[in-house]
Amino acid sequence: MKIKKTGKKNIKLLIILLIIIIVTIILLGPLQIQNKILKIIYPREFENFVTLYAKEYNVDENLIYAIIKAESNFDPNAVSGKSAKGLMQIVDETAIDIAKTLSLKLSEDELIEKLNDIDLNINLGTKYMSMLLKKYENIAIALTAYNAGIGTVDNWIEKGTIKSDGSDVENIPYKETNQYVRKILRDYKIYQKLYN
Question: How far apart are CA 165 and CA 19, in angstroms?
Fold first, then answer.
């Protein structure tokens, strides 16, 4: 007898839960629910720094968010196997080179020591991306250089391995870089749809 009552209670609770879900979907609309879920998966953390440096260096902030998501998934303490650090995963040598183009009052040792600092890392990473965009005039190729390095990308373009217009990113020879570029381009489109 008790088993039947428990079963009936569970069915009633399930029906009530389904009604609540259906009413929520009707009231909020499926698109709004989907967007809310996507905004959890594709956040815009550290917005003050991203907005500041994206404007300063003329880079779409949605692209910066897509890079941060791919590089560190918004973990400011991330360190890669190749010793890239912080949100935008910058290696020491690149940080030193970028810092020379900026008016930072840090020694090389201080710069490397503070590379996980959110403000500094986004500043350097966004500046670097702006330099790559200016050099290559193409987002896909700039992203390829961000991951594989300028020398490598210049060599690939020179040899005809990839085109300078980014129309054949599927030909990027490094599997990691190939997947990286495709992921960021996909995430960039998602960020644009969610936040523009």
Answer: 52
- Distance, in Å, from the CA atom of 111 to the CA atom of 121, rounded to the nearest integer, reads 10
Six token digits for residue 136? 């290559």
The answer to whether the CB of 126 falls within 8 A of the CB of 86 is no
Residues across the chain: 196
Q: Is 71 a catalytic residue?
A: yes
The active-site residue, picked from 71, 93, 110, 158, is 71
The pTM for the full model equals 0.83
Which residue's structure tokens are 């997947």? 179
Per-residue buried b or exposed e for 93-103, using 16+ beta carbons within 10 Å of the residue's own CB: ebbeebbeeee
Question: Would you tell me how many other CB atoms lie within 10 Å of the CB of residue 104?
Answer: 16
Q: How many helices (H) does the chain have, and how many strands (E)?
A: 10, 0
| pLDDT tens by residue, the chain, 196 residues | 444 556 677 788 888 888 887 776 666 565 577 788 889 999 999 999 999 999 999 999 999 999 999 999 999 999 999 999 999 999 999 999 999 999 898 999 999 999 999 999 999 999 999 999 999 999 999 999 999 999 999 999 999 999 999 999 999 999 999 999 999 999 999 999 999 8
Under a CB-based contact definition with an 8 Å cutoff, are residues 128 and 142 in contact? Answer: no
| Sequential DSSP letters for 118-178 | HHHHHHHHHHHHHHHHHHHS-HHHHHHHHHH-HHHHHHHHHHTSS-TTSTTGGG-SSHHHH
